[in-house]
């Protein structure tokens, strides 16, 4: 089954929001979507769903979208896959976007996987490069097998061409020049889902502020080698004015909040300095830190793969090395202060 | 529902990540060199299915789509305690992306009259995480992804999942039938019992279904996959200095150059 691909146009970006707060990855994709739309000569359209979120649709216009589609209804707060999916299906059927970009957060992946099926869309996961070819076909590239290879995935005969991108892969940039009347570019769409037709109910939601480590210039990351004591990591990060990050192993132990996880299923960071302490260097972790300028490794095992992926390393116990390092940083700061 | 739930657990056979190599001449993956194993996140799915069966009664059926040798992952699931297994195998499935893969699994789950389908978070080979929501979408069922723990409410026909979401968690009550993707590491998978393992390896035979058994022979395979792998490039590895220093003072000097 293929479709009349000529009938599909425009680049859509799904603006993920919770409680009126936009997930930063959505702005990252809006900036990338702007580049793609400029190349294909199409409109960049922000898709905003929620309850009382017209201000976010306007914010998307101020950030470079040519237009915003707003589905505003209590059924869309908080996020649930089935009402979001049903609304998206109806919009795609009616409006026929050519490209749809979605953040690779838990919410975005939950949504993308659901909506690609009824649309019979091609959906490429975890892209790290997005481009369009001469015919306007989306070229979605993703690392495979631990970053040893890049697969470029195309979707020649189906529409829309969908892709998810993990947080931190692209740069959000700054909002463009203020738009005089952003509300004029916002279109409120018909809501096609009714609460009684939904298949699920959110009975409890416990969320706090979500830190964003993706823009940090210095990241100090700890792994299983911390053995429950993250204080040396936190103190060095504090001294260097950086952010604390962690491996999935450390997050799973509950030592660090999930928003600080770096790697394939976490964030991508590209700081000037990345300190990896008590981290073995599994491929899934390296994927999130490989774009760092300088990587420093501290590990007791001289054969740990992290040393192959670091610029400077020291074989030693992080509980001794990091406090010494922190003291040196502090001492220097006192001299210059 | 006095006789419990029909629980289906999806298990995928993947190459052992450590043993996949890239052919330097063609840039393609030498998957054939690598021993095939059960996708490790699916161990959490199997464990969760067994726990659910213990709580509400019923049966656990493992399903996999793959070549005949994928029977091995059904044996692993049966060895751990699953009641039976179904192998979806057919040349017609070859080259399927997530759209047809989730269609085949969805049809099989419907055929098995599933109340709950449990998957892993994502595979370790192509790691899209798109198959579980895809199964739910094909069948119009509810879905719970990134699940840390499950709380069945059989009297209400509802499964409550605690989901890991950005900045915290949420508890979502989903109507049956429901597709669940367990978070990798959400539980401690039990080891196979000795007798069960022997049974799985010597007596157990999976049920085999082809694409036409499921009535989807015209909707699967490479030709019916929206995504096409357009090219595979060997990524240039990041160049690192790989200097190992002897003292913290030396390390500090290198850090000072950066910040
Ligand atoms: C589907 C999937 C997705 C995944 N996604 C991610 C992801 O996004 N991010 C991620 O990080 N992982 C991810 N993982 C997990 C990944 O495979 C590794 O298991 C994980 O990165 C290991 O974390 P670690 O390095 O902290 O622990 P370990 O591998 O256990 O390494 C600990 C290291 O600490 C060293 N050490 C011990 N004590 C000390 C000490 N006192 N001082 C100094 N060093 C010490 C040890 O020598 C060892 O090298 C994923 C896995 C799967 C299957
Ligand atoms: C390099 C490369 C990149 C690819 N990228 C994409 C892409 O971006 N988009 C795309 O649509 N396809 C892609 N594919 C195709 C993809 O490999 C298949 O669709 C794959 O069989 C299913 O996807 P997955 O492994 O990512 O499953 P996931 O969605 O990651 O798996 C989640 C869970 O679903 C269950 N499951 C998945 N597959 C099976 C199965 N065969 N049998 C039983 N249970 C299963 C398991 O419980 C598993 O834990 C890619 C293939 C390659 C080689």
From TrEMBL, chain A:
Domain Electron transfer flavoprotein alpha/beta-subunit N-terminal per the UniProt entry, residue ranges: 11-201
SMART domains: ETF
Keywords: Electron transport, FAD, Flavoprotein, Transport
Domain of life of the native organism: Archaea
Database matches in PROSITE patterns: ETF_ALPHA (PS00696)
Protein family according to the UniProt entry: Belongs to the ETF alpha-subunit/FixB family.
PANTHER family named among the record's database cross-references: ELECTRON TRANSFER FLAVOPROTEIN ALPHA, ELECTRON TRANSFER FLAVOPROTEIN SUBUNIT ALPHA, MITOCHONDRIAL
Protein name: Electron transfer flavoprotein subunit alpha/FixB family protein
Automatic annotation (TrEMBL), chain B:
CDD domains: ETF_beta (cd01714)
Protein name as catalogued: Electron transfer flavoprotein subunit beta/FixA family protein
Pfam families: ETF (PF01012)
Lineage: Archaea, Methanobacteriati, Methanobacteriota, Stenosarchaea group, Halobacteria
Domain Electron transfer flavoprotein alpha/beta-subunit N-terminal stretches: 26-218
InterPro entries: ET-Flavoprotein_bsu_CS, ETF_a/b_N, ETF_b, ETF_beta_N, Rossmann-like_a/b/a_fold
Family: Belongs to the ETF beta-subunit/FixA family.
Gene source species: Haloferax larsenii
Gene3D superfamilies associated with the record: HUPs (3.40.50.620)
């Amino acid at each position: 089954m293929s479709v009349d691909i000529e009938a599909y146009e425009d680049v859509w970006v799904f603006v993920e929001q919770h409680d009126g707060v936009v997930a930063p990855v959505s702005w990252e994709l809006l900036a990338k979507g702007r580049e793609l739309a400029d190349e294909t000569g199409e409109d960049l359209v922000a898709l905003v769903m929620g309850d009382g979120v017209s201000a976010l649709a306007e914010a998307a216009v101020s950030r470079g979208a040519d237009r915003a589609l707003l589905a505003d209804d209590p059924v869309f707060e908080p996020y649930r896959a089935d009402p979001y999916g049903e609304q998206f299906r109806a919009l795609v059927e009616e409006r026929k976007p050519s490209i749809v970009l979605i953040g690779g957060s838990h919410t975005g992946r939950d949504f993308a996987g659901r909506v690609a099926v009824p649309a019979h869309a091609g959906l490429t996961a975890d892209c790290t490069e997005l481009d369009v070819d001469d015919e306007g076909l989306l070229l979605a590239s993703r690392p495979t097998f631990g970053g040893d290879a890049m697969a470029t995935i195309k979707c020649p005969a189906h529409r829309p061409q969908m892709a998810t991108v993990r947080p931190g892969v692209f740069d959000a940039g700054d909002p463009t020049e203020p738009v005089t009347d952003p509300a004029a570019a916002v279109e409120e769409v018909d809501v096609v889902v009714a609460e009684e037709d939904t298949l699920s109910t959110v009975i409890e939601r416990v969320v706090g502020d979500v830190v964003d480590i993706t823009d940090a210039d210095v990241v100090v990351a700890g792994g299983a080698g911390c053995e429950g004591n993250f204080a040396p990591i936190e103190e060095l990060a504090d001294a260097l004015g950086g952010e604390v990050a962690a491996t999935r192993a450390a997050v799973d132990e509950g030592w660090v909040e999930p928003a600080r996880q770096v790697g394939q299923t976490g964030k991508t960071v590209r700081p000037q300095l990345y300190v990896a302490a008590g981290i073995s260097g599994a491929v899934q972790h390296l994927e999130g830190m490989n774009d760092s300028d300088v990587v420093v490794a501290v590990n007791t095992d001289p054969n740990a793969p992290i040393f192959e992926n670091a610029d400077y390393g020291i074989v030693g116990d992080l509980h001794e090395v990091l406090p010494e390092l922190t003291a040196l940083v502090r001492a220097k700061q006192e001299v210059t202060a | 529902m006095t006789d419990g739930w029909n629980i289906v657990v999806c298990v995928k056979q993947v190459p052992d990540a450590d043993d996949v190599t890239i052919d330097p001449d063609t840039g393609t993956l030498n998957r054939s060199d690598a021993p095939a194993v059960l996708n490790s996140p699916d161990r959490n799915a199997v464990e969760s299915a067994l726990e659910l069966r213990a709580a509400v009664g019923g049966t656990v059926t493992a399903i996999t789509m793959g070549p005949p040798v994928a029977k091995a992952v059904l044996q692993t699931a049966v060895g751990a305690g699953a009641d039976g297994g179904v192998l979806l195998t057919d040349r017609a499935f070859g080259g399927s992306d997530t759209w047809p893969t989730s269609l085949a699994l969805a049809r099989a789950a419907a055929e098995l009259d599933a109340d709950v389908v449990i998957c892993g978070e994502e595979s370790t080979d192509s790691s899209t995480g798109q198959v579980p929501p895809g199964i739910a979408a094909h069948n119009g069922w509810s879905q719970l992804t990134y699940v840390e723990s499950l709380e069945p409410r059989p009297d209400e026909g509802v499964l409550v999942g605690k989901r890991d979401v950005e900045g915290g968690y949420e508890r979502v009550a989903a109507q049956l039938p429901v597709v669940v993707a367990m978070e990798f590491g959400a539980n401690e998978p039990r080891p196979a019992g000795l007798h069960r393992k022997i049974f799985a390896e010597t007596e157990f035979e999976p049920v085999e279904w082809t694409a036409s058994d499921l009535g989807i022979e015209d909707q699967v395979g490479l030709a019916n996959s929206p995504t096409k792998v357009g090219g595979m490039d060997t990524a240039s590895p990041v160049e690192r200095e790989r200097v190992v220093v002897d003292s913290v003072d030396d390390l500090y000097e290198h850090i000072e150059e950066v910040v």
